[in-house]
Structures
1.
Amino acid sequence: MNGPNAPPSRLLLVTDRHQAAAPLDAIVAEAVRAGARWIWLRDRDMERAERRDLALRLRDAARRGGARLSIGGDVDLAAELAAGGVHLPAGASVAAARARLGPDMLVGISAHGADDVATAHAQGADYVTLSPIYPTASKPGYGPALGLAGLARASRLGIPVVALGGITVERAADCRRAGAAGVAVMGELMRAAARPGGIAAAVEGFSQALLPEMA
């Protein structure tokens, strides 16, 4: 069973206010102006009302630039805000999310191996993030890095796979050549705000790296 919605971009910006060198709404607004078209509000450790307010600001910033906001792990909040999608934790029910959100909402789920990817495909998810592809301090506890070989195997399972974990501009093209539908980037974009024009430069760099079609 295939999910009905294609990922809106090859670049997925993942929020993390703990690494961010500027307020998240400012980072997202600048990234969208620079061409980012898909944002994942992760930041799961916020108080609910505070996270709702942030989600609302990010949704509006995304909409102004024609981008889509996926809400991490909170189906009810995604429905309340009519966000662009929801990103579920590994093991969550894709069917329940789809029933709550309807057929047009983007529904993705985290995967940490080929079995997770195959399960997501069978359940009708639109895409998976697969992590960690490279070693990264932000994805502890999920075992060794899967590498490009693991990414290539997962990308042949019939569902769009978005590579996550340790992704740099230099590695993005390798992930794409390995079969990834795109890459999810957190730290590289969150920290880029420390440099004037850094976010726009980072978005442009990743976008350029992801341009070549798969061989």
Note: The chain has one domain: 11-209.
2.
Amino acid sequence: MLLVPLATGAIVVARSGVNAGALALFVIATLALFWLRTPVEAWLGLSPIKAQTKEERGAVLRLIVLLCAVSLASLGLLVATGYTRGLVLIGSIAALAFVAQEMVKKLGRSGRMPAQIVGAIGLTSTAAGAYYVASGRLGVTAIMLWMANWLFAVNQIHFVQVRIRGSKLITPSEKMTRGKWFLVAQIALIAVLALSVAYRALPLLTLLAFLPALWRGLAWFLRPTQPLDVHKLGLSELKLAIVFGALLSAAFLL
């Protein structure tokens, strides 16, 4: 959800020329900020894995300081070269999404999937960010790349939750009962994509990029139940994300 959107944003700019230096700084800052979250949560005691002893807290704090320095230095160079307005806008939306995610998490189990969906807004913002720093433009293309990647992320999150919660379902009727809202979401996704293409917000070939994910979701209702292998499920969704990213990039380039 972080790297595939980032790659699509960078690849789509290739047609008109890429500011490689700015893009490299953005990638460094993005990865540093992403890696920063886990040690901060561990140091503050907000995650299952906590820094408990004095030595552990010291080691985690040193890592936090290092990652902060790397991210601030990279962002500082980008701001110094004129990327302030766009980065502030994208960063503010992403930060609000992560704050909202933490609030939704407090709902407990019922808020798990909504929290992931809200958090995906922040993760997929790398599509708009990469396009912006590589091209110097924050326009419709950047926003549509962000939206398309977020819609795909929402589909993945929902499907994984359905697969986990429906791992013991056998008959199609049981699957339909458990996964009816996922099916509704699939139909809603098709409608959103169709309208976006009709109003020329997204290229027509964007539909092709979503086709594997839509088929994967429908096939689950039709095929016989298989034992749930979480590792295998994760790898298949990773492969699907890479295929989506490649097809989405091609849709915007052609």
Note: Residues 54-80 form the longest helix (27 residues).
3.
Amino acid sequence: MSTSDPKAVTLSPGLVSTSADEVERVLRALLARREPLAALLGGGASSEWKLRSIDSARQYIVLEPASGAPDAGLLARERVTFLAEFGGMHVEFTAEGPQQQADSSAVRFGFPAVTVSHRRRAHRRAQVPAGFPLRCVIPIGAAAALEAQIMDISEGGIGLLIGLLVRSANITPGPGTLIKGCRIERPEKGPVRADLEVRHCRPVALADGGEAQRWGCQFLDPSDDVKELIRLFASE
């Protein structure tokens, strides 16, 4: 068990923590500050929670809703992703197997296997309207490709960020993975070519009860066409 003072914890930009020690340090920092956590429920919905306790043997964590009883839909999920604002950063973790505690609104989850932290965006992400769908075709082999729905776009200082919602749990790229030759397809116009670097990847629950992955990617040396696409949505 980590003996570090949780109030002394600092997180580096883009840090992916996979060791139990690091995961516990991040969680205990959230616990010490009673940071609010947003449970992402799919379809843009969320509910507010707080971390109540962490098992010393790292088998489980206990969270409680900020008010009222836990949502029945959340309890029915296999896993739930939580998001916190922490020291100028976003901190995310996914916990599995929610079980409501007897005579309490608190819910027990399995101990998270990973936490992901990255700096709060300097620019607001522009949501892609449902009536203007964008797809990203990602090459994954000599004659194979993975199709993704582009959810939002923003200008991120050193590059352009794009969130990808992928309906496949079989491919999970690690941070820093480079994806060359992606094709962004847009209605009534020709495709835009782009190279991407994966910054983070996490599972999410969809509004229809299904599961997916969400990839956060950065454009590498964006072309004029990519910059124009960003400006299109940023101006909406």
Note: Residues 6-119 form a domain with the Pnp Oxidase; Chain A fold (CATH 2.30.110.10).
4.
Amino acid sequence: MPTLDVNGCAINYIVEGTGDPVMLIHGFASSLHGNWRAPGVVDAIVAAGRQVIAIDCRGHGRSGKPHDPSAYGGTAMADDAVAVLDHLNIEKADLAGYSMGGFLASTLLVNRPQRWRSVIISGMGDVLLQGNLPSARFDSLAAAMEAPDAASIKDPRGRAFRAFAESSGNDLGALAAMHKTRRAGFDPAKLADVKIPVLILIGNKDDPASARRLADAIPGASFVEVPGDHLGAVATPEFRNAIVAWLTNR
């Protein structure tokens, strides 16, 4: 797989298929393989006549895994996606992000709207109306990654993500570093000014009410529920079918 050096960090990416491009950004402690390849999302999009560009976010998959928190500061993680598109001479693409990737997709929607035909924000809810994740969530995940083991973590969410991170073979030090910096978000007031098509996609056992509130805050946004909880929805056929159906209508 090719890599691109972005400010000293190697970003692994794939390019598959032909047609109008779609950029995919995975969730925390996952990878382009875990979030998009293994569940069949890449193949489904390619079969629908589109080109897929997917990245391993820094700290994940086959990309570089800095242990210096500053490597993840500002909008570095969102900017990596744009750097790959620039490298490929792609001026505009559709964009889909899951969980952490949904936060990054929201950042790109607000900060770089001219680069996208449409945006899918999946696995996220009305926390995005704050423009960033709460500091306590950053701290909790950093602590979970540095805990002696998953069983010792009292916070259920942190414990679940630690177990998921271990099962996915992640570099826990890199994931901890990622949450020791306050990554820049976006101005949430600008969500009301969004003029491109947006889909909010959520599992019915995740937090659909919160996701519905997010959709209501974005002019003209569509809303789709699929089966599954936060870690499981992405693996359902309904999830990939919803993405393909959305892209087919763009």
Note: Residues 50 and 175 are 32 Å apart (CA to CA).
